[in-house]
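ok trying again, last paste got cut off:
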Amino acid sequence: MPDTAHSAAAFPATSKAKHIRVWDLPVRLFHWLLVVTILIAFLSSEEESALAPWHIPAGWIAAVLIAFRLVWGFVGGEHARLADFLKPGRIGHHLARLFSGKPERSIGHNALGGVAIVALLGTVAGIVYTGATMQGDAGEELHETLSNILLGLIALHVIAVIAMSVLTKDNLIRAFVTGRKRADQYPGIANARPPASVAIPIAAVAMGSAAYGITLIDPVAFVPGAHAEAGEAGGGEAGEDGDD
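nice, full thing came through this time. structure:
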């Protein structure tokens, strides 16, 4: 198989570059939907926020998205698959090239990018779990701690993406919007293999199963404001009982 890492200095850009397909549409939709979901979750974390009714639904939607990504890591397009980017043995080489001033382009996620994906998704999963199951001050404190860790990971991820885009002259953000990269920067690299023929049905079943399982835990999981209304109703009933 051809080497997918290339020196940034070895292949100068040209104005008439053709493109190669790298990221399939479902993995790109997942990425940006998770970005929006996390943003809503943070903006709705305060009770005074106009988005507060969406806080819990946003968390559960993130859980469904994670279920999709795990399945897509086995049946998705070539560079969306876990086996394509979870390569811890490549981290040392990647760092050595980076610190030597000769960073390598990677047609898919580089070695550190793979670690970042695991860390980000794992932290989001931890936030959803603590928000859904843990009660009291200790549970709330852990939930907030994980949320702050996620903010730090996101900041680090964004900085790394921008830095690698500049250092390698490979616009990583644009690639995750269009799904394509410039072919002149990756000579000899073909279009990514598409998702498996049964990928969409399998992913749909996984997401549907996740959503159904969530509603068994929380019947109003995806209804904005339902938990606040239930709390107010419970408080009102308690008050009425106290007046009797």
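cool. The CA atoms of residues 37 and 58 lie 6 Å apart. Residues 7-17, 235-239 have pLDDT under 50 and may be disordered.
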